[in-house]
Design goal:
There is one protein chain. The strands form two sheets. Strands 1, 2, 3, 5, 6, 7, 8 and 9 form an eight-stranded mixed beta sheet that branches. A two-stranded antiparallel sheet has the order 4-10. The chain has two domains: about 1-185, no CATH class; about 325-520, 2-Layer Sandwich (Alpha-Beta Plaits). The chain contains 15 helices and ten strands. A hairpin with an 8-residue loop joins strand 8 and strand 9 (about 500-505). With about 525 residues, it is of the alpha+beta class.
Length: about 525
């Protein structure tokens, strides 16, 4: 109910909500001041007219002191005002506004609570000493007694301020970036207990003693007041220590254990588990954390298994949700490679040997493709198709594809399988994106450039070259490549012949295979 009321006030007041916070904090402090004057008066039994007069001084002094404190904290609110006035705040601006909002009340009281307390207590004690005619001993007793309700009023006002600021914090927190560098600046639970329990218990003791102990005129009232405050304070401190120790065992320690395991998960240690030590909300929290960690471990296993069958870069994009459903047009270079004479080899070899040989060949080919920034689009029996320039855009995709093709040819020729591969490379515009249906999708590229690349690889059988590239690829090269023209070649399915080139025999030129030229696909 309280949260709903605060939310309504926040939405209704808009940018004037800081005044609601001011009124709320001041009202709670004023209420404590008024009640404190009435309770302390029971130790002296002055006329009600004098009680009202002193109470008015206390209320006025407290209201002015707390209002000045809240108003002084308005300088911090400027960060929040700028955030609310910005249509599209940056993550850094949002994080700054969140830090101010979550520590607004704490910083206000940390800086000014002593001054506010003095500004509230001194005028009230002076008025009571004069109006009630207590003398210096009475003034000393009142100062001691006023410290306790003053401290209680600070704790209460701080708590009220935190409740009133909560809707603002929730609004900002909804826009926080996930990678926020969280640094705790608030009061810990243990410190809250150590501060609040003595204030509550001591104030309770003073109130009970004043209401039930009977009044005493003159100095005796001051003596009883001092004794009550001292005993109540001692009991309050003892109880707060005991209560803090008990709650540390039952609350703060289990929370600390969950936080420690969360740190392990943050470091990608998904074997982390929090002990479930109780059957209450904290036990439920630990249990839910363990379920989350187990789910993350299963997800990581899925990612690793998925990466065995799909290119790891594609896996990353799929899991991140960055793959556009409708695909995107992009310029790429496509590499097809195929094993020479594989059909004849498969006829005379055992099936298990054929599979083992293919796996050994692909174990040499795939790392080369990945080293040059490409990804294997699909395996085609004894061959494969690789793409350079998608899903990550690369301005030098043609260079990468040609150098990777040359390296593949050399690596297989130097291997122990005794087989050779031929490769073809073509460049052009394709549509890249998820393809498939009936719940099965594959990230791939489609377009005429893909068909041409496959036909160019097949043309190596006619020209006798291990590698052919098209004029489209040659025109996109950004680094020198020694090439020999093979003229126009008629390709199956193409109405016009395509000019192809063969790299001069030799090792590929040095290639920078990674760097800032990579750009993500839009």
């Amino acid at each position: 109910m309280l949260e709903r009321l605060v939310g309504l006030l926040y939405r209704a007041s808009g940018r004037r909500y800081r005044y609601v916070v001011l009124v709320g904090e001041a009202a709670s402090a004023v209420l404590v001041a008024a009640v404190s004057v009435v309770v302390v008066s029971t130790y002296y039994d002055p006329p009600w007219r004098d009680v009202v007069l002193v109470g008015a001084v206390g209320v006025l002094a407290t209201a002015v002191a707390v209002s000045c404190s809240v108003w002084w904290g308005g300088r911090d609110a400027a960060v929040i005002d700028r955030w609310k006035a910005t249509a599209m705040p940056t993550p850094r601006e949002t994080a700054a506004a969140w830090r101010v909002a979550t520590t607004f009340t704490l910083r206000q009281y940390r800086r000014l609570s002593v001054l506010v307390g003095a500004a509230s207590i001194v005028p009230t004690v002076a008025a009571a000493t004069v109006v009630w005619d207590l003398g210096w001993s009475g003034a000393g007793a009142l100062v001691l007694a006023a410290v306790i309700p003053g401290f209680y009023g600070t704790v209460l006002s701080f708590s009220v301020g935190e409740i009133l600021v909560r809707p603002l914090v929730e609004e900002i927190a909804a826009e926080l970036p996930d990678d926020l560098a969280f640094v705790p600046h608030g009061l810990s639970l243990a410190r809250r207990l150590r501060l609040s329990v003595p204030a509550y218990t001591t104030t309770t003791g003073v109130v009970v003693a004043g209401l039930l102990g009977g009044s005493t005129d003159g100095p005796d009232g001051s003596g009883r007041l001092v004794l009550t405050v001292v005993v109540s304070l001692a009991v309050g401190l003892f109880l707060s220590l005991e209560l803090t120790n008990l709650l540390t065992v039952s609350i703060t320690r289990p929370l600390g254990q969950v936080r420690a395991q969360l740190a392990r998960v943050r470091d990608e240690d998904y074997a982390a588990r929090a002990p479930v030590l109780s059957s209450d909300e904290l036990g439920e929290l630990a249990h839910d954390f363990n379920r989350m960690a187990r789910g993350l471990a299963e997800r990581e296993e899925l990612r690793n298994a998925f990466g065995t069958y799909v290119d790891k870069e594609v896996v990353r994009l799929i899991l991140s949700g960055q793959v556009p459903a409708a695909g995107v047009e992009v310029d790429v270079s496509i590499l097809f490679c195929d094993v020479r004479g594989f059909t004849a080899y498969a006829e005379r070899a055992e099936a298990t040997e054929v599979v083992a040989t293919l796996n050994a060949l692909f174990a040499e080919i795939v790392p080369v493709v990945e080293a040059y920034g490409g990804h294997v689009d699909k395996f085609l029996g004894d061959g494969l198709m690789a793409v350079f320039g998608a899903p990550e855009r690369q301005l030098d995709h043609a260079d990468r594809a040609v150098d990777a093709a040359r390296m593949i040819v050399d690596a297989v020729d130097l291997g122990v399988s005794g087989l050779r591969v031929a490769a073809g490379v073509n460049s052009g515009r394709v549509v890249a994106g998820p393809l498939g249906g009936a719940g099965r999708l594959n990230f791939s590229v489609i377009g005429d450039a893909v068909n041409v690349a496959a036909r160019v690889e097949a043309a190596t059988r006619d020209t006798g070259d291990d590698l052919l590239i098209t004029a489209a690829t040659r025109d996109l090269l950004t680094r020198p490549q020694p090439l020999v023209a093979r003229g126009l070649v008629a390709l199956k399915g193409k109405s016009e012949p395509v000019e192809v080139f063969a790299p001069v025999a030799g090792r590929p030129l040095p290639t920078e295979v990674a760097g800032p030229r990579e750009q993500p696909v839009d």
